[in-house]
Amino acid sequence: IEFRQAIYAHGMGKRRDALFEALDALILHGMKSSFPWLSLSGVFRRKWHSLYKALEQGEIDTNGLASYLAQQVPQVGICHFSLDGTGWPRSRAHTMDDRQYLYLPTQAVNGGSICVGYPYSLLDWVPEPQTSWSLSVSVHRISSNQSAQSVGVEQIIALNEARKDYPDVLDIVAGDGKYGNANFLRPLRGQRCGIVVRLRKDRVLYRKPEEPKTRKRGRPRVHGQRFTFKEPDTWDDPDEVIELEDVRWGQVRLERWRDLHGRLDADVPFDVIRASVHLERDKPPPPIWLAWQAPASSPADILVNAATIWRAYVHRWPVEPNIRFRKQHLGWCKPQFQEKETGDRWSWLVALAVWLLYLVRPIAQDQPLPWQKPQTHLT
After folding, report:
1. How far is 233 from 247, CA to CA, in rounded Å?
2. Cα separation of 12 and 334, whole Å?
3. Mean pLDDT over residues 174-203, rounded?
4. pTM (two decimals)
5. 8-state DSSP, 310
6. 211: pLDDT confidence band, cut at 50, 70 and 90?
7. How large is the angle between the packed helices 2-10 and 340-359, nearest 10 degrees?
8. What is the biggest distance separating any 2 CA atoms in the chain, rounded to whole angstroms?
9. In b/e form, how buried is each residue of 19-37, taking b as 16+ CB within 10 angstroms?
10. Residue 8 and residue 26: Cα distance in Å, rounded?
11. Are 160 and 191 in contact (CB under 8 A)?
12. How far is CA 263 from the centre of its chain?
């Protein structure tokens, strides 16, 4: 009740009643065959055209909502966040400006497709790994003069600002391969949260140069020993090795090397973790490489080792099924609005609907069909 009252009073402005009733209709019934069907819900006490007017003329304080949602995340221990992006296809909206080419994963033969639409960047809190729950604390549309990396940096900085008064928590943000570069890591150096991102398997990095015994003329060396992912001969002994047994991944071996950097990015050093999992298979999957950029400071009672970093990256995955849930069941991309700003407001309503569904779990009861087993841990 407190959460609903807060987002109504402080997160919504003009036409807040119609916006909130549309949100209630969405979480009670989900998206029907088309967007106007939400107006037929008993909780939406207006005519169908008020549904469009609420989103076209309404006001949502996105900055205030983002700050409030960030404060709802636990304030002690380790909190995991996932940064990812997705697209809203608008291939037939020829009069809408600032559309871009998007990559959308499909079941096609080539594994994906290219369409025209609007990309969005999501920064989500992930309360549990390997589940379908992922709660957005920030939703941003990426304009054509921005990149996913620059928008992600802005979202993380805003998250740090909203949670700067919580000294007993360590926030870790995980990202996939498109964030594994110095352009993303450099602006986040010195922030209060840790960053773990995936690296390409063909990267070539360098150690810090050794200090010369005697001072020589000329520019000091920038690079030290070469470190190539595909050439084990270039690896020296790791600074940390951890072997553990995981319920889902089986045998896990983690190797960590400290203070590596790219050829053109000597000012952005980071730690590298090589994670090998067995999955109880005769032919295990190839290992993955992760980059870890430590925060400026962390609570004294929290130990950050290779296992902590690897588990933080495992928390990245739930954002993917949750995006699929928003599109398939909440109808995120079903409406065909005429303005991109209207789509931004609808995107925030869908994100708030996921929060409400998550918070209502303790009082919601499963209603399985006759051939289904009842669930105690609702997805």
Report:
1. 32
2. 23
3. 95
4. 0.93
5. H
6. confident
7. 160
8. 82
9. bbbbbbbbbeeebeeebeb
10. 15
11. yes
12. 28
183: three-class secondary structure by DSSP: helix
Q: What is the mean pLDDT of the chain?
A: 92
Residue partners of 299: CB distance under 8 A and separation at least 6: 167, 168, 169, 170
The CA distance from 206 to 272, in Å, is 11
Read off the pLDDT of residues 354-370 as tens digits, 9 standing for 90 and up. 999 999 988 888 889 99
- β-pairing, 169-175 vs 194-199, is parallel
Task: Summarize the confidence of residues 51-74 as an average pLDDT.
Answer: 95
What is the separation of C-alpha 271 from the centre of its chain, rounded to a whole number of angstroms? 21
pLDDT at 215: 75
Q: Using a CB cutoff of 8 Å and minimum separation of 24, what contacts does 240-249 make?
A: 240/305, 240/306, 241/306, 242/305, 242/306, 242/307, 244/307, 246/277, 248/130, 249/277, 249/278, 249/279
Asked whether the CA dihedral 57, 61, 63, 65 is positive or negative, the reply is negative
Burial (Cβ within 10 Å: 0-12, 13-18, ≥19) of residue 132: middle
CA distances from residue 220 to 208, 217, 227 in whole angstroms, order as listed: 12, 8, 20
Structure token digits, residue 268: 């952005």
> What SS3 class is residue 339?
coil
Q: Provide the sign of the torsion angle of the four alpha carbons 353, 357, 358, 359, taken in this order.
A: positive
Task: Write out pLDDT tens, residues 149-170.
Answer: 999 999 999 999 999 999 999 9
